[in-house]
Each structure stands twice: as structure tokens, then as C-alpha cells.
Amino acid sequence: MKNSSIKTWQHVNMHEEYDFIINETEFSFDMNKINSFLFKSITEPAFDTTSANGKFIIQIFGAVAEFERNLISERTKSGLDGARKRKKLLGRPKGSSQTSIEKYRFAKHLYDNKNISIDKSCKQAGISKATFYRIDNNKK
């Protein structure tokens, strides 16, 4: 698409939304072909890709956004590596907790012995139906 344009009233957190604008619009946006995509903010004249200054500012915000994403990624990887070195368990715990199993037993007792529906027995036991059936299926 030649000379496609987006006009906004205000750039709210443009450096964070930059990637969204590039990836989620129907317009093809290539930093090497920035002339084919026009972005103009009505209330903020600095955000106008029809001028050299506007193109420069947009490119700077894109670089800052990419830099922030890379920093977050590096920090996350570093934190995970440190946790592994300290022998910390990472991720979701496997299996059901002891309290969930106890609640399951109570709900199962209500269902089997008191002829209460599974919905009502789960509510009384304080457990979701999904957890009830997950534990029930694992018991078999």
C-alpha cells in the first residue's frame, strides 16, 4: 500500500505501543520504506512521519522499545539462571495440593453418601468442579 496513513489524537505511550502499530495494522511498515507509511498525531506535531524530524523521533522510540524488551528478556533469563543455581523449583507445582485433595474427599463424601449433586457438594467443600474432576480422574 502506498502512502497509507494513521492519524491519532495523541500518542499515548508511543514507545510501548510502537511494536503494536507495526505488527497489528493492515499496513505494511518497513523501517527502510518509512515513506510509504505516514503517522501523524493531531495534537503533537513532533509525531509526524511526513517530516524528517518526525521520522527520526519514531525511529528513536522504536529503538528504545526494542532496548527495553531486550533488557526485560535478559533480566528474566538471569533471574531464572540464578534460581536454578540456588536449586529453586521453577514452574507450576505438579499434582494437587493437600488441601485440594482434602476438599475433594469431602465433596466426594457429600456426593456419595448424602445424595447431593456434584455442583452443590463442590460449593460446600470450597472446590471447583474442574479440580474435583481432575483429582477424580487422577485417582482412577
From TrEMBL:
InterPro entries to which the protein is assigned, alphabetical: Resolv_N, Resolvase-like_N_sf, Resolvase_HTH_dom
Pfam families: HTH_7, Resolvase
Domain Resolvase/invertase-type recombinase catalytic: from-to ranges: 1-87
Protein name: Recombinase family protein
Record organism: Chryseobacterium indicum
